[in-house]
Amino acid sequence: AKILKTACDDVLGQLGKMEEQFGVSIKHDLFGAFGNQLVSWSMPMAAFGTAPELAILIRVNDQERLLETMNTVCELSRGTLEIDKVERRGITVYQLRVDLDTGGGMTGFNPMDMFSPTFGFKDGWMVAGLSTGDVKRVFGRMDRDDDPSGDIRSSEEFSPYLGKLPEKGIGSLAFTDWKATFEGYYQLGTSLLAFVPLDPEIPFDLSLL
Questions:
Q1: Residue 31 and residue 26: Cα distance in Å, rounded?
Q2: Cβ atoms 58, 35 nearer than 8 A
Q3: In this predicted model, what pLDDT tens digit does every residue of 8-28 receive, in sequence order?
Q4: What is d(CA 76, CA 62) in angstroms, rounded to the nearest whole number?
């Protein structure tokens, strides 16, 4: 425990020096820029090697301050993190590139290449996802009329609980569609079966599962 405390103190000390050098506080300028509201959802992974649809919405107190701090954090990362600003069809998003090549550039393998972490800002919210499409879909949902047919309220699995929810006073709400989750895992598992070597003398077709 003493060794761990010493290591943590060393890391915090180095971080403090970097914060002083770049004139930024991770605690106040980064985390302090976020509000106290968060909404998130994710869909099951459809196939091996593809990112699931995912979205995270966080209330933001100061967008410009947050962006400036995130850019400074990228500078502190020394190439591990980079942010690119992308403007298309009147929509501005920011793509986060993460370099996790543990081989120091020698292996050429970065596990984050299969994802395109993206975030943007709309109506006081920071919207983040694993792809640009995820963020754009959320922007579209935020602009549409209040139609229950296009959100969780139309789910057959969720509808039995909808009438039991109080109209006010909810501080936190979570729901998991276990049926859809199981179907996603099943599709993922069956897609992986294609890589399983099977003796040709075994009269069994894995594709029928």
A1: 7
A2: yes
A3: 777 667 767 766 766 777 777
A4: 21
In whole angstroms, how far apart are CA 120 and each of 57, 87, 101, 125?
A: 10, 11, 26, 8
pLDDT band at 93 (very low <50, low <70, confident <90, very high): very high
Does residue 129 contact residue 135 with C-beta atoms inside 8 Å? yes
Distance, in Å, from the CA atom of 89 to the CA atom of 26, rounded to the nearest integer, reads: 33
Q: How far is CA 184 from CA 23, 42, 120, in A?
A: 46, 12, 28
Beta strands in 50-151 (DSSP E): 54-60, 81-88, 91-98, 118-122, 125-129
Start-to-end CA distance of the chain, whole Å, equals: 50
Q: Which amino acid is at 121?
A: F
- Are the beta carbons of 110 and 90 closer than 8 angstroms? no
Helix residue ranges per DSSP H, 23-153: 63-76, 132-143
Instruction: Report CA 81 to chain centroid distance, whole Å.
Output: 15
Cα 76 to Cα 183: distance, rounded to the nearest angstrom: 42
Task: List the one residue out of 140, 144, 101, 137 whose CA is nearest residue 118.
Answer: 137
Contact 48, 188 (CB under 8 A): yes
